[in-house]
């Protein structure tokens, strides 16, 4: 059952929206299927709860002055310092039409290749694009890490099972997560040495260029000196 959120129409727009935030309200807008763009205001606390529970890929029942709308939280503007929501976009959807969106991958279990063999877990994907009817949209898709038993094992798109009615839009051989062999102390030292030497090489190359230009200048080969 979709999470519900109460909203009301607002007339305060632009910079005036700051007054809403001071009273614990979040400026928002509703648009999409079967509706014209409609400025709204929702409770900041209630929105935060729905955002944490539904995310941006799960259907939400938005009540606007008593009228229900099936929506997705389409976009959220955040304060760059506090991370607090400043504005939200609600996308109205048709229940009989499939939509494409991205959902998070939820990694569960523990890879024995990491625990017992000291392998390094590398997550190549953290989300995946899907297509489904709004009622079938999942909050996330689980990925079972216990299948990773040996170093070099990997889990592909074709290895995961999407919920009924959900189609994953990716190639079956796309890698989601894999286990790499641990780096030896020698490899780590070599890597650190290469990183430390990189700036020196750049400086040496620059000095060589300046030296070459100086030599040309001394022999009258610099442009304009014949």
From TrEMBL:
Domain Large ribosomal subunit protein bL25 L25, first and last residues per copy: 5-90
Region of interest: Disordered: 190-226
UniProt keyword annotations, A-Z: Ribonucleoprotein, Ribosomal protein, RNA-binding, rRNA-binding
Gene Ontology BP term (one): translation
Summary of the function given for this chain in its UniProt record: This is one of the proteins that binds to the 5S RNA in the ribosome where it forms part of the central protuberance.
Subunit-structure text: Part of the 50S ribosomal subunit; part of the 5S rRNA/L5/L18/L25 subcomplex. Contacts the 5S rRNA. Binds to the 5S rRNA independently of L5 and L18.
Protein known as: Large ribosomal subunit protein bL25
Biological source species: Candidatus Sungiibacteriota bacterium
Gene that this polypeptide is encoded by: rplY
């Amino acid at each position: 059952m979709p999470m519900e959120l109460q909203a009301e129409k607002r007339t305060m727009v632009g910079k005036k929206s700051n007054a809403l935030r001071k009273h614990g309200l979040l400026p928002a807008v509703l648009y999409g299927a079967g509706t014209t763009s409609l400025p709204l205001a929702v409770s900041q606390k209630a929105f935060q709860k729905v955002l944490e529970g539904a995310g941006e890929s799960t259907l939400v029942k938005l009540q606007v002055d008593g009228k229900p709308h099936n929506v997705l939280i389409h976009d959220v503007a955040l304060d760059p310092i506090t991370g607090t929501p400043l504005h939200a976009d609600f996308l109205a959807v048709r229940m009989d039409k499939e939509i494409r969106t991205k959902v998070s991958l939820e990694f569960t279990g523990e890879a024995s290749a990491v625990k017992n063999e000291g392998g390094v877990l590398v997550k190549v994907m953290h989300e995946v694009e899907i297509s489904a009817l709004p009622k079938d949209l999942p909050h996330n898709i689980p990925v079972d890490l216990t299948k990773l038993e040996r170093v070099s094992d990997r889990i592909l798109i074709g290895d995961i099972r999407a919920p009924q009615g959900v189609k994953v839009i990716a190639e079956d051989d796309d890698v989601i997560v894999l286990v790499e062999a641990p780096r030896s102390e020698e490899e780590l030292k070599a890597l650190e040495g290469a990183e430390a030497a990189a700036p020196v090489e750049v400086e040496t190359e620059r000095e060589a260029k300046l030296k070459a230009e100086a030599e040309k200048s001394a022999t009258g080969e610099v442009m304009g000196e014949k």
